[in-house]
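Hey,
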Amino acid sequence: MPCVSNHEALELAAILRDARNGALLRMRSEIHSQPLRMRGESRQVAHMSKPPPAPPSLQVLRKEIDSIDEQVHRLLMARGDIIDRLIQVKQTQEVGSAFRPAREADMMRRLVERHRGILPLDTVESIWRVIISTFTYVQAPFSVHADVSVGESAMRDSARFHFGFTVPYVSHFSASAAVEAVAKSKGDLALVSATSSRAPWWITLEGSGAPKIIARLPFVERADHPAALPVFVVSRVADNAMVTEVEMWSMRVSGWNAEIARALSPLAEIVAVPDTAFDGAALLVSIAGANRLEKIKAAMIEAGASVRSSALVGSHATRYTVPLNGSVKS
């Protein structure tokens, strides 16, 4: 057995001690690191296996609907409180001057522009029309006089869609009778066909104190509108409440024929009935844009007609047209 000096023995003992301590450290490191990895893996598995949140129950959703319904009702009552104060300020309860065609047109435009979601536009339009009409009725009671000669069911649908069931509905067998009833009232309105007529009822609107055409309905037009019958609304309103985007003119012409009608069709919408007084026709002409009246008169003269008289008998807002793709045009 070789002889080992004390110095060599000490060095050997130090080497063995260092090796033993290193192995011990590695074992401890492995012991401590293994649970950490296992805990991380456990957390990852727990995170991956966590179920998605459950959808709200029907009871919760119905409570939300009930809350919204209550808010809508309270807002309607708050609107009624404001109308009550408005009546006191304007003192219009007796004079029948609560119609505001320009304001209503602006409200309907904003309604159409902001509408979205699954609720049909027809429903929203009808709700707002009934709200406006009913609160107008509360301010100054009025009746709707309708010319049913163009079709009673279609005219009734239009009246109920735009004015609801609170406003009284009175049927007449001619446009002239409906307009006459309005002329004798304080604040009623008439609904008459905007596309055809058997007599020139609009001639009675020519006087300065006579009722005027204040609107054309439906304001929002589309192919599947539930109240699609085109009608004029005739009533008395304050001059500053009128909307003048489309002017309505009563014109009497001589020499009227089909060729002149075709020549004018690109320039304006026209309702024409025979006028024996001038051996021609009485016209109700819808004119949009500046200086269009003079252009129409010039076109008539060029086509061989003579303009005997003309008078402004009202105005209304430009209509919105909603095509099938849902975009809005005005």
